[in-house]
What we know:
Blueprint: E1 5-8, H1 11-20, E2 29-32, H2 37-45, E3 53-61, E4 71-79, E5 82-85, H3 89-98, E6 103-110, H4 117-125, E7 130-132, H5 135-142, E8 147-155, H6 166-189, E9 194-200, H7 206-222, E10 226-229, H8 236-244, E11 247-250, E12 261-264, H9 271-279, E13 283-286, H10 290-304, E14 308-312, H11 318-327, E15 331-334, H12 337-340, E16 349-353, H13 359-372, H14 386-399, E17 404-408, H15 414-424, E18 429-432, H16 440-443, E19 448-453, H17 459-470, E20 475-481
Parallel strand pairs: 1-2, 1-3, 3-8, 4-6, 6-7, 9-19, 9-20, 10-11, 10-12, 12-13, 14-15, 14-16, 17-18, 17-19
Antiparallel strand pairs: 3-7, 4-5, 4-8
Amino acid sequence: MTGLLICAGLGIEARAIRRGLPARLDGTRVVVTGVGPRRAARAAAGLGGRGPVAVAGFGGAVDRSLRPGDVLVASEVRFGGRVHPCPTAPLLAGELARAGLPAKVGPLVTADHVVSGAERHRLAAAGAYAVDMETGPLAHAAGGRPLAAVRVIVDTPEAPLLSPATLARGVAARRTLSVVGPVLVRWAAAAGPRTVLLAEPRSFCAGVERAIEIVELALERHGPPVYVRKQIVHNLHVVEDLGRRGAVFVDELDEVPAGAVTVFSAHGVSPKVREEAARRGLRVIDATCPLVSKVHAEARRFASEGRLVALIGHAGHEEAEGTLGESGESGVLVQTVNDVAALPADRPVSYLMQTTLAEDEAAEIAAAIRRRFPDALEPKRNDICYATTNRQRAVHAIAEESDVVLVVGSVNSSNSLRLVEVAARHSPAHLVDDQGGIALDWLAGARTIGLSAGASAPPRLVDDIVAALRGLGEVTVEERVIAQETVRFSLPKEALS
Length: 497
């Protein structure tokens, strides 16, 4: 979408913004509104156009987490008893952060006077982050147009506006505004109507839901801290949320106090870890996914029969480490087709699979094993879990119709990475932790966006992305359903006692 209008209260702010813009930039205007709500309201009456509206300039912090030089991207603008949402704020803040600016998201209040002293504290107590004197009327005039408000913090409760250091802070803020300008141009280029294709199934699977519930129950029944070996599931938001509630995530058991309540993650552990937990008297609750436990049982059975256990998987992944531990000296990790040639041929061969692999990738390696060892035993049932398979097929269905595919998940999530690989065979695909990870350039010109989430990603993150995209223009949501998941796993008895 073209026709970006950038409004600034002061000429010095407008000049700083223009300084960062390319010499020739069709469709972008930078206007000076004048200081204060009355002047901003008069300017708003003559805005015209239908393109995105951005308000940028200096601002004063009321929240003590903000420092001079920080950039506040308004999540909403409060003025005159009205609240104007800015749903694209996380997208814009993420882009500003990638441009090297210390960006934060929070509510912005427009006042008709310079706010200081106790009034700042009252605004902060009401949840506000910063205050300005122009954005409110402009936000109201923008109507349904894409709206952004960006304020570079010059003064704070600890660094008042009327102080000798204000001049230096103002000079630094001008430099920051020159970086903000090009980011606003990219934001406007990403605006426009689009269709979002939602892959279904997506987000949490039964094993992830079970693991999270186990930690929540442990916190409820035993109180914090509850220790969790490794990440309970591979998702940053899940780990941070449980951490705020009292879960303590550790890499190894020697970080856990003797006798403490300890949860094993959904990816499973090796027998050595279980033995160490028993030696240290830990109160263990095992959150291993039942489908991973099935693979462990197969590994023990094949190893007990004197077979080589070839595990098709990825080095360093907790699930692979646990399964290899169950295999003992019989286990060998196979990551590629080339690894098959190095497998020893001194005993009967069997193979297993990490549950989060891409189907076709694992099938290719399995076929290579069968070619070299025609008598190799395979799992009685497919080791790749139903949730992984369903999500890969669903993302394949949307990728063929999409200009770009976004997969919500963390970088250490194997199943999420596989979804990106599957999607990338048909269209550009990107892994994002949340809406802040979306580069605006990915959205420019993309009128159909595919959206999915790994089995460890909370559903709300998908909803957040759709909401952010709606802030850029009208969004039509269509769902592509390839399966209905009804699987539920019971909790271990240790979690209920």
